[in-house]
């Protein structure tokens, strides 16, 4: 570990932020102060120790390595940066992400990628309940399992799960696509298994490639999505709610 | 001559009145509950049940046209680096693009800017019409997160975390398919023509401890510049206000059941939540108990119609009020000039509330390109500014009569109540007595 808390030893060495020495506010302000085209493209955050809101609202294409586990909302509203958490993430990691990518080397808590509009969220461990809730264009790839009520009211984007999914997957789903390799405990209202057509296999292969997944074939997955029966209110559907 | 017994006058039931009977027949015929816009229409204890005492031997008034009566207010001074400074304590409440037309949103922005006050976005994101014409714009952070993005978050002058609204505390929104134009659909990332069910809970936090962490995130993203409001429906105003303060809010917004909505079930609007009048004292009490009155500002909305309502709300301890329905009427909503068209829709000017159907003759609650042309944003904005000016002058007139050189110096002691209910809710004496129900053991 470097002795200095804020070092710039060489042009392309990472700028190191030790949260034992500096505040979260200083970290996020420094990231927000980045001008387009800045040379400070590599950042390293030490001792996050479960801090909330680490590297939120970043809007420059920089790489941020977080050495440890984070609390709520890490990488929230990320636009363009590449964040890697070398640990686990608390609730709402990558919430409302616009673009860029976030990789969690460990597990993720509830609401991972909630309302995300774009970009890629990769969880190399498991994700808890409500993964991809209300997702609006984000791509999420989970190497392990996901918990119940995942992809609730998911509007668009893709959720890929290499393991199993919990109860009520895709409840009240709109146009998001769900790909699950393992078993699904149950499907939520208006979510159904769908045919895996060639364009879906191609799409899925692309997602697996982007997420660095090897040795897994798209044909091993099942696709789930909306039956579109709840799109316009009809009293005869009231029992579904 | 044959004797006939005196006839009995036909008697309708007070319980099963004409409206109730029509609603039973409508429900039986359609199998669907009634959805409509606006707020509670039933008779409720309200500001009309309060009176100002004015000056007398023990209190002397200020000269109406000579002595200054300050109307300005600063919102968000607790934590924000850039608080909002308003010339008048009347703001424009959140109303979405989608429920309102683009020209209507622009008119709200123009009118508010002329008056030195703010407008608020709604469920559906920030439009250029509103950002371009509102000098001070409050960006709502809603459960649906439709159109929510960090760029607009940074372009906003304040952020309002919406937990609930007065018309439907605990309810989400519903924008029916007929109002989902291409532009509305794109902003909400959903297909055109389908019903858009806005969530009733935030997707990534539940409860006051999470809210504190969520507010921290919003502050970090916006570098602690923007005031953060927390808006709640009038349900448990004492505890909701206290919890919002604990979670770090700069401003608490409490919306009573007369506050409007774009579309919700009639049964929800009329039967869930509390009247605005009943919400104010508990919210003020919470701030006072925490030593945060005037440090965290309180905005109250729901049925504010004129300067007297503004003055009464301020006298009860609020810092500012918000108007929605009244602002729409100022723009031209429910104007009798469209009576023939209201009749065709089976209603009449003043009663039209099927805002969700998108066929508003006044061009305000619609996405129909032809209808929305009826709103001239410049002229409608001017009308809103005129209305805000009148409200402010009215409130100043009352404040001067009570001897106050600032609207914010009005106090509960300036008020009496006309009814026992209003006396209990507002915590002021019944007129002509020193009786405040619930105080001093009575």
From TrEMBL, chain A:
CDD domains: GXGXG. InterPro entries: Glu_synth_asu_C, Glu_synth_asu_C_sf, Glu_synth_lsu_3. Residues 60-187 form the Glutamate synthase alpha subunit C-terminal domain. GO terms for molecular function: oxidoreductase activity. This is N-methylglutamate synthase subunit B. It comes from Rhizobium loti (Mesorhizobium loti).
From TrEMBL, chain B:
It comes from the Bacteria. Residues 108-133 are annotated as: Disordered. GO terms for biological process: glutamate biosynthetic process. Residues 75-332, 356-404 form the Glutamate synthase domain. SUPFAM superfamilies: FMN-linked oxidoreductases. CDD domains: GltS_FMN. Keywords: Oxidoreductase. It holds the Pfam family Glu_synthase. GO terms for molecular function: glutamate synthase activity. InterPro entries: Aldolase_TIM, GltB, GltB_archl_type, Glu_synthdom. Residues 109-121 have a biased composition (Low complexity). PANTHER family: ARCHAEAL-TYPE GLUTAMATE SYNTHASE [NADPH]. Belongs to the glutamate synthase family. This is N-methylglutamate synthase subunit C. It comes from Rhizobium loti.
